[in-house]
Amino acid sequence: MKRFLFWLALCAVLAFSVSVEAIRNDPDLLVYYSFDEDDNKEVADDSGNGFDGEISGAEWTKDGQLGGAMEFDGGSFIKTEPEIPGLTDVELTEMTVEHWVMLNAHTGETQQVWETLNAAGAWPAETFIEGAADMVFYIYDTKNTEHRTPIPELPTKKWVHIAGTYDGKVQKSYFNGRVVSEEDWSGKFTIFASAAGAIVLGKDNEADIQYLNGFIDEFAFYTRALSEDEINADMNKGVLFAVDPKEKLSTTWANIKAEY
To answer: Which of 106, 153, 217, 223 has the most crowded CB, counting CB atoms within 10 A?
Structure first.
């Protein structure tokens, strides 16, 4: 009986491993920063695509919403490489961006959570805090039309989960897993390569202004629109898991061997 239970447990571990690999190989998850590791020079892209971010002044903290997080002091930022294949210089018809954010204070000025650029040096996609408290998920399409889906009443000193999606027909903003605004439109948008970084977190992309005074955790960018269920799963469990799957797998296997 014990031998049967042992092999049953082993099959469960192997199934877990396959499941983890499937999650890691999500072809639409382009960039994912869990911020779970402390490195004062760069943040690892946990999507497996290798699009690590370069840190400029931002500080790591172990006290994120899910594991570690990055703190931005109103003068720091993180940037990716200028080009991200599959993201820059292509016409996009779908996307999802999501992250946890906690504001230290309302400055009365715009605070950027993340931003990208288009050919004209404008911002084709971004999430920012506008004025005192309102957050906006913004897309500027290839027909030079802006689309804004707001998220009102952003608190301070409290983690909130923000997501923005566009599926080619509808743009939506989510606040703590719930749709709070949407706009119907059809079209495309293009994110261009930028010397300042294809994606910049914590400040305006084209200038050293609009810095974030707060924290970011679990930043992810998909090239498809996630469903509400998928967004809630990422929000509650982490994009890949709050604990490193390899570590979790090793611990599970050690417990099985100890028991049998």
So the answer is: 217
